[in-house]
C-alpha cells in the first residue's frame, strides 16, 4: 500500500482537531466569561476557542481579531448582564424602591457564585477606553444612555413630589453610576457580598436625600 504523502498526513491531523464550524452563541459566552474573568490582555484566544468547542481560525473569520471578539462580548454583556440594574430600577413603581433595587441588583450581579466578580465594563473594558477607540465609544454611549434613563426617572419623581428639587436629577444619576462602579471594583477585589449590600443601602439613602452630599 502506498504511504501517505506529507500533505495527506497534515490534512488528516487537521481533521482530528476541533471543528471549524462555529456556534456563535457558545463562542460569545466563552469569550464573555474569559474577558470578564481574566481581562483583555490575559485572555488567550486558543483557550476561548477550546471552551467554545471550535477552532481559533473560526473565531477570527467571524470576529476579525481579538479586539473584534472583545467588542462582540461587550455588546453581549450590554444586552444581558449589563441591563439588569436598570431593568430592576424601571420595574419599581416608587422612586425609593427603584433606587434600592438598582443597587441591590448590581451587587448581586457582581457577586454571583460561579460567575466572574465585578462588572465587565468597569473591570475589563474601562482600562482600554483610551487605547481602543471602539471600546471607548461603546462605553461612552452606554454610560450616556444609562445616565439619561436615570435622569428622566428622577425628573419625573421630582415633578410628582416624590423627591425634593434641591438635588439635581443629573447629579443623583451620576452619583448612582459612580457608586455602582465603585461597588464593582470592590467586588472584583474580593469584598463580601453582605458588606457590599450594606454599603449599597447607604448609597441609596444618599441618592434619595434632599440635597447633594
Automatic annotation (TrEMBL):
GO terms for molecular function: DNA binding. Transmembrane segments: none annotated. SUPFAM superfamilies: Homeodomain-like, Tetracyclin repressor-like, C-terminal domain. Residues 1-23 are annotated as: Disordered. Keywords: DNA-binding, Transcription, Transcription regulation. InterPro entries: Homeodomain-like_sf (IPR009057), HTH_TetR (IPR001647), Tet_transcr_reg_TetR-rel_C_sf (IPR036271), TetR_C (IPR011075). Pfam families: TetR_C_13, TetR_N. Residues 44-63 bind DNA. Residues 1-10 have a biased composition (Polar residues). Residues 21-81 form the HTH tetR-type domain. It comes from the Bacteria. This is TetR family transcriptional regulator.
Amino acid at each position: 500500500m502506498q504511504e501517505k504523502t506529507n500533505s495527506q498526513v497534515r490534512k488528516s491531523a487537521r481533521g482530528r482537531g476541533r471543528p471549524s464550524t462555529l456556534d456563535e452563541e457558545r463562542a460569545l459566552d466563552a469569550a464573555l466569561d474569559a474577558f470578564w474573568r481574566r481581562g483583555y490582555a490575559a485572555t488567550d484566544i486558543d483557550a476561548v476557542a477550546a471552551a467554545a468547542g471550535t477552532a481559533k481560525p473560526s473565531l477570527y473569520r467571524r470576529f476579525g481579531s481579538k479586539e473584534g471578539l472583545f467588542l462582540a462580548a461587550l455588546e453581549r454583556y450590554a444586552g444581558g448582564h449589563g441591563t439588569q440594574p436598570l431593568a430592576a430600577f424601571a420595574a419599581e413603581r416608587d422612586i425609593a424602591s427603584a433606587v434600592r433595587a438598582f443597587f441591590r441588583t448590581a451587587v448581586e450581579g457582581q457577586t454571583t457564585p460561579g460567575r466572574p466578580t465585578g462588572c465587565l465594563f468597569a473591570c475589563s473594558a474601562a482600562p482600554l477606553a483610551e487605547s481602543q477607540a471602539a471600546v471607548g465609544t461603546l462605553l461612552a454611549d452606554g454610560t450616556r444612555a444609562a445616565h439619561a434613563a436615570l435622569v428622566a426617572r428622577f425628573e419625573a419623581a421630582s415633578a410628582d413630589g416624590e423627591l425634593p428639587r434641591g438635588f439635581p436629577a443629573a447629579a443623583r444619576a451620576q452619583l448612582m453610576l459612580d457608586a455602582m462602579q465603585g461597588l464593582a471594583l470592590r467586588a472584583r477585589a474580593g469584598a463580601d457580598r453582605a458588606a457590599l449590600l450594606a454599603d449599597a443601602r447607604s448609597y441609596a439613602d444618599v441618592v434619595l436625600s434632599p440635597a447633594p452630599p
